[in-house]
Design brief:
The protein has 5 helices and 5 strands; from the N terminus they run H-H-H-H-E-E-H-E-E-E. It is an alpha+beta fold and 191 residues long.
Length: 191
């Protein structure tokens, strides 16, 4: 969940940990031990512990209480997106929350069926690409916008499968996999 403002104590901790890692890296490069009398295995554990702390602080800085992401969203994206922060990944839920529905509509702009359907977002429904029983999640990356026909008829009644590819394209196939459709590119950005 993205909330809050810049948390400067977290930023200070993050900078301190990065400086510590840089000193350790420099000492290793010069053939000096980072910790007195340490073995190579102990040095590796120290490095891994520092890296984990850095990752934790980076996550806190971006999305924890006082997170930077919300601050940037509110300051840089204007009033339209300046409302309250909402979750964009909730595990799995039959009901897709408004925050995820709105984000998917903004991202997709129209039906994402793997042929080409130009039904606008306002005439579409948000669909879980992968069902809960198959490990599906309710998040923006696991949901797609489909018009009523492609969602309710083609997917749910006729049994077609639709996947959202990592590059933003979609691929669909019928139940016996004799027909495969591919979209031609990721969704166009809203203007």
């Amino acid at each position: 969940m993205v909330i809050g403002e810049v948390n400067y104590p977290v930023l200070d901790d993050l900078v301190r940990l990065c400086a510590e890692l840089a000193r350790l890296t420099e000492a290793e490069a010069n053939g000096q031990a980072g910790v007195q009398d340490e073995t190579p295995a102990a040095g590796l554990r120290v490095r891994e512990a520092l890296e984990q702390q850095i990752i934790g602080k980076a996550v806190d800085l971006v999305s924890g209480p006082g997170g930077l992401a919300s601050f940037l969203r509110r300051q840089q994206l204007g009033a339209r997106l300046g409302g309250p922060s909402l979750p964009l990944d909730i595990g799995y839920s039959e009901d897709i929350p408004a925050g995820i529905r709105n984000a998917v509509k903004l991202r997709d702009n129209h039906c994402r069926w793997a042929g080409r359907c130009n039904q606008p977002a306002m005439a579409c429904q948000v669909h879980h690409v992968k069902h809960k029983k198959n490990g599906g999640k309710t998040s923006t990356k696991d949901c797609v916008l489909l018009c009523f026909f492609h969602h309710q008829i083609v997917i749910h009644r006729w049994g077609w499968t639709l996947v959202l590819n990592p590059d933003g394209t979609t691929t669909a196939w019928n139940p016996d996999k004799t027909k495969v459709l591919h979209s031609h590119g990721p969704p166009a950005r809203a203007g």
